[in-house]
Design brief:
With about 160 residues, this protein is mainly beta. Helices cover about 5% and strands about 30% of the residues. It has one helix and 13 strands. A hairpin with a 7-residue loop joins β4 and β5.
């Protein structure tokens, strides 16, 4: 799990708007704000549920032929979520069809919400996007400094 100044962080991605149908979701994290350098998410720690055998682990299996189908139809804003932890910094998260998508003759474009927590219980907003399946961000406070520290060591002295 990623740690900043001794604090470990969990992350949770949610649908920011209602979906007209049950979305088919794949999730990918990236180390860069251009969303081109993939980072594997090894495990979904918790999620809002699944339809049949289309569980949340399908969202991170790197296969375009499998996906996670939440157990709601339609899904209210914030009803669909997946919680994960990463062992390295990331600046972009992509969740196909969760923020913008279509299915069952319905379409939606409510966007995504990304939250963080140090205890996997109390959540704080990191960023919300509208009309997108992607969130590009800089983690507040020391994360930005920590990221810069990895590239240029003398920028951050604690």
């Amino acid at each position: 799990m990623y740690s900043v100044s001794g604090n470990a962080y969990y992350f949770r991605i949610l649908n920011a708007g209602s979906t007209g149908w049950r979305p088919a979701v794949n999730i990918q994290a990236y180390s860069d704000s251009g969303c081109s350098q993939k980072i594997a998410i090894s495990e979904i720690l918790s999620n809002s549920g699944a339809n049949g055998n289309q569980g949340a682990s399908n969202a991170i299996d790197q296969s375009s032929s499998t996906y996670w189908r939440p157990n709601c139809q339609p899904c209210a804003a914030g009803q669909v979520f997946a919680t994960f932890a990463l062992s390295s910094p990331f600046s972009c998260i992509f969740a196909s069809n969760l923020g913008v998508g279509g299915g069952g003759g319905k379409s939606w474009n409510g966007g995504l919400t990304l939250e963080y927590s140090s205890d996997n219980s109390n959540w704080s907003l990191l960023k919300t996007t509208s009309d997108s399946n992607k969130v590009v961000f800089a983690f507040p406070g020391t994360y930005a400094c920590m990221y810069a520290w990895q590239a240029i060591i003398f920028f951050c002295v604690y």
